[in-house]
Amino acid sequence: MKTLKVLALTISISFFAASCGSNSKADTWSTDQKATWTQNCLEFMAEQGVDDKNAEGFCDCMLKKTSEKYTPEEAASITTEEERKLWEECDYNW
């Protein structure tokens, strides 16, 4: 019984420490919001003439970076400068 309590306490502390150290907003995004965001990104990249493989990699990176820093509502209104910084973090050159 004592081992179970120690294990539960250890798991609780680990979870608490992990959540305190994380500033990610990724958990505010639903599966549908992620899918919609990715689809919009892929369509934009196709319009720019980027091939599917590069577009997918770039959009995956952009979604990861965007969802870590912004909620879906915040992401809808980020500035061009904020978006440019995310682009640079993904460092894609075609």
Describe this structure in words.
The chain is mainly alpha-helical. Helix content is 73%, strand content 0%. It contains 5 helices and no strands. The longest helix has 19 residues, at 2-20. The relative contact order is 0.12.
Task: Please describe the biggest sheet, giving its number of strands, its sense, and whether it closes into a barrel.
Answer: none
Q: Please write the string of helix (H) and strand (E) elements.
A: HHHHH
**Oligomeric state:** single chain
Radius of gyration: 18 Å
The portion of residues assigned to helices is: over 70%
Mean pLDDT figure = 80
Overall geometry comes to: globular
Tally of strands: 0
Helix and strand composition category: mainly alpha
How far apart the termini lie comes to: 59 Å
Residue runs with pLDDT of under 50 for 5 or more positions: 2-21
Q: How many separate helices? A: 5
Give the amount of beta strand, in percent. under 5%
Task: Give a summary of the structure in a few sentences.
This protein is mostly helical and 94 residues long. Helix content is 73%, strand content 0%.
Write the layout of secondary structure elements.
Elements: H1 2-20, H2 31-47, H3 52-69, H4 72-75, H5 80-90
Structural key phrases:
single chain; 94 residues; mainly alpha; 5 helices; disordered N terminus
